[in-house]
C-alpha cells in the first residue's frame, strides 16, 4: 500500500521523533540535540564562530614588513619568571631555564633580528660591574630587551642608569626596589624609546604581597636600515 502525501509527512515526523528519542536514550541530551541540529540543518553558533587569529608572539595584528614582533612579560613576584619573545621565538623564559632574579636581558642585531646573547644580572646580591661590562661595549644599532624579575634596582648605580638612559629609557632613573619593568631600547637611539613600562612597588596598590603586578608589553620594532657605504 502506498502512503498518500499527508500520511507520508506524518511518517517522516514520527521517524525523526523516534530517532531523537533513541539518541537521547543512548547518548544523552547534548548528543541528541546535536543530532537534531544535524537533521534540521542547523549548527551551534559557538561551533561556527571563528576564533580570533593570533600572530607572532601572540600579537593581535601582524607587524609591517621589515619590523620585528615582540612581547615582553616581567616576572610575577619572585615566583613566575619573565618572558621575552621575538618573532615567535622565546628568547628568555623559565621553560628555557635562562631566567634569574634581577634584570633579564636579550641582545638582538638591529639589522637582521638575529639573537646575539641573553644574560641575567642579580640586582639584589650580585655585582653591578658585571652589568656595566655587558652594556658598555654594545655596538651601534643593537636592540636591548629587558624584563625584570623580583628586584631589578637595588644594585643599580648612576653609571648603569645612565647607560640605560642612553639606550632610550626614561623610567630607569626612578626604578626602585621590586618595581616591575619592561623595556626595549637600542644603542645609538636618537629619541626616547616608546617601548617601556614601569609599575611602582607600593603597599597600597601591590597585587602580590610585597610586589606589584606583572607587566606585559608587545609591539613591532622596525629593523635598522643598513648604513650607506
TrEMBL record:
Protein name in the entry: ILEI/PANDER domain-containing protein
Gene: FAM3A
One GO CC term on file: extracellular region
Cited Pfam families: ILEI (PF15711)
Native organism: Oreochromis aureus (Israeli tilapia)
Annotated compartments: Secreted
GO molecular function, one term: carbohydrate binding
Entry superkingdom: Eukaryota
Keyword set, alphabetical order: Disulfide bond, Lectin, Secreted, Signal
Family classification: Belongs to the FAM3 family.
Domain ILEI/PANDER: 101-188
Amino acid at each position: 500500500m502506498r502512503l498518500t502525501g499527508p500520511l507520508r509527512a506524518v511518517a517522516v515526523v514520527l521517524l525523526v521523533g523516534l530517532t531523537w528519542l533513541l539518541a537521547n536514550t543512548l547518548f544523552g541530551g547534548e548528543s541528541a540535540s546535536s543530532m537534531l541540529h544535524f537533521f534540521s540543518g542547523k549548527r551551534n553558533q559557538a561551533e561556527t564562530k571563528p576564533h580570533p587569529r593570533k600572530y607572532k608572539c601572540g600579537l593581535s595584528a601582524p607587524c609591517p614588513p621589515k619590523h620585528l614582533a615582540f612581547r615582553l612579560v616581567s616576572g610575577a613576584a619572585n615566583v613566575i619568571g619573565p618572558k621575552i619573545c621575538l618573532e615567535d621565538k622565546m628568547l628568555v623564559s623559565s621553560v628555557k631555564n635562562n631566567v634569574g632574579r634581577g634584570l633579564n636581558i636579550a641582545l638582538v642585531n638591529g639589522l637582521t633580528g638575529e639573537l646575539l646573547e641573553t644574560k641575567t644580572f642579580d640586582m639584589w646580591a650580585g655585582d653591578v660591574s658585571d652589568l656595566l661590562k655587558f652594556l658598555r661595549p654594545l655596538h651601534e644599532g643593537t636592540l636591548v630587551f629587558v624584563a625584570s624579575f623580583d628586584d631589578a634596582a637595588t644594585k643599580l648605580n648612576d653609571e648603569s642608569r645612565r647607560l640605560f638612559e642612553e639606550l632610550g629609557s626614561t623610567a630607569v632613573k626612578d626604578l626602585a626596589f621590586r618595581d616591575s619593568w619592561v623595556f626595549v631600547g637600542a644603542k645609538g637611539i636618537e629619541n626616547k624609546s616608546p617601548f617601556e613600562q614601569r609599575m611602582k612597588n607600593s603597599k597600597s596598590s601591590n597585587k602580590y604581597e610585597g610586589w606589584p603586578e606583572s607587566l606585559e608589553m608587545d609591539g613591532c620594532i622596525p629593523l635598522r636600515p643598513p648604513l650607506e657605504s
